[in-house]
């Protein structure tokens, strides 16, 4: 590939998925690349929601402790390069080109040996990431799972620590229709004798994870059982809590984020950080934990873009995340009028998601559409406004930019505008506001 655009076209030109869920292609890629996945110190993070926030919290605590931290995340919010980053800085266009040229000849060999069954887009990108970090660009690499866990292309890694944030309903076409089935897939990242930290998970799916951990002789630490948090009231766009585990308490931990779910995410990250540092015998104190968490911002997760009127974006794209939005509205904005502009991908549970928000008394719901990512269409919500049972009026405006203008003309300075439904959608919105 001669330049960045050619490299991106090559990556995006790969098939998105195959009918069979197999690790064969990824294992072959790793073998032909000399097993770069075995040459990094990794923390592997799975879960329905919360992965991005846990990765961000972990990265900042590890950086505060003096480590160079690589991350592999998805999707990107502003630029593709974000997916492979070092200390939060995306790798360069030139590195994307170099890595594509490194991986492409091997992909071509596999294509020839496996006609119509060659590596997917995500497998190619994952191979690029492992090849890059095997070169020594980071002391530790936090690897975020794409979908599920057991058959995800990242699952060739043998980490120092595994993390499962939450279990909820999403990607059911791949993971099954019960929380226990979904948990079984995500528990696939648990490796023999490798510690695993899990978040606030219901009894049924947690039992599945516990069983897998026992089978693999993997020590397990669970939020609400082995470590705990207690929220403390604090004014402003913050959260404050106390963390406790077998080592004692960490008091007055502050976050520059809003939402109970972020307290849970931070707790999981703290426990994962402590266990990783203890494993590596790297000394730290609680000030490092507090500093790392307080410095963490996570774009697109209940992110404030404007103060007056208050404009918030959130990438909530499944039912568990929409329920957290509902909770935030009730907890923080019950006395204010909320205008919600919502656009969702067609393969999501968009009707139940809309119904949750439509039932809130202080919500004005505006449905819209956006151009989805390559080969993933946005839901056609034009007829949905009339099919949802709601005491509130639901409006449809097909152009999301026009929807923002329309809402802006209706709002007062005391009202709140929340734009949500898809990380891909709020990526477009964020770019508009940041221009």
Polypeptide structure, described:
By secondary structure, this protein is an alpha/beta fold. The chain folds into two domains: 4-294, 3-Layer(aba) Sandwich (UDP-N-acetylmuramoyl-L-alanine:D-glutamate ligase); 303-434, Protein-Tyrosine Phosphatase, Chain A (Alpha-Beta Complex), CATH 3.90.190.20. 38% of the residues lie in helices and 19% in strands. It is built from 14 helices and 17 strands. Helix 3 crosses helix 10 (286-294), helix 4 (93-113) crosses helix 5 (121-133) and helix 11 runs parallel beside helix 12 (350-358). The longest helix is centred in the N-terminal third of the chain and has 21 residues, at 93-113. The radius of gyration is 22 Å and the shape is globular. The model has no long low-confidence stretch (mean pLDDT 93).
Strand order of the main beta sheet, please?
Answer: 4-3-2-5-1-6-7-8
Distance separating the two termini: 30 Å
Low-confidence stretches: none
Briefly note the CATH topology name of the largest domain: UDP-N-acetylmuramoyl-L-alanine:D-glutamate ligase
* Assigned CATH class of the largest domain: Alpha Beta
What is the helix tally?
14
Question: In terms of topology, how is this protein built?
Answer:
Elements: H1 4-12, H2 24-32, E1 42-46, H3 51-64, E2 69-72, E3 84-86, E4 89-90, H4 93-113, H5 121-133, E5 140-144, E6 161-164, H6 172-175, H7 179-186, E7 196-198, H8 203-215, E8 220-222, E9 228-232, E10 239-245, E11 248-255, H9 260-279, H10 286-294, E12 303-306, E13 310-314, H11 319-332, E14 338-342, H12 350-358, E15 363-369, E16 394-399, H13 400-410, E17 416-420, H14 423-434
Helix pairs in contact: 1-4, 3-9, 3-10, 4-5, 7-8, 11-12
